Amino acid sequence: MTEATAQDAEQGVPEVIVADRQLIVCQGLGSLVAQMAQVRLGSFATDLASLRKALGARHGPAIVVLGVRLADADLGRVLETLRRDHPRVMVVVVAEESEFAFIRTAVKAGAHAVCMMGQVLTSLPRILGNLVEGHSLLPVEILKRLMGEQGDSLTRREHEILGLLVDGLTNFQISARLGLSENTVKYYLKAIYQKLDVNSRGGAIAKYVAGTY
Which GO molecular-function terms appear in the entry (predicted)? Predict the structure, then answer.
């Protein structure tokens, strides 16, 4: 750690860790963060292991700017890990407007703010500035009210399976990840298709990502 970084840590300047499965996305978001005087740019993470390492090595407060997927984990799993292992770390989820299901996941998991990728140039600096001052630009309770919690008939396990479908996992890979038999995964998929009124994986993925269920 450099002398300047150590001084920033001592003064409570938050370190911003940028995490997304694509390094080029991390670099783009990082270039925005680097221009802000209120925070200091930390590491980039493309998978959960590197995110854990970055958080473990930090000094002082931290903010994670998080894309909807890492290379080895979906958004729900990453947020659950952060909530369990690093409850004081603030989280900003960056998502496309078409990724409503991930926005819903972020809100339910207690993310401090959601930033639309299409507005990231103006919104991300403002959101980070608000977090530094101790409050969110879009508080979780307001986000919940705006997005509505109505009519979500999917169970938590079904959300997990759909998230893994979106990531391209096969039935076998899903069964291994969740500790279920392949037959059980097929049973869940059948129930999911019925609830979403689709008859294929592609149809289920399209509806889930768009949030039209």
Answer: DNA binding
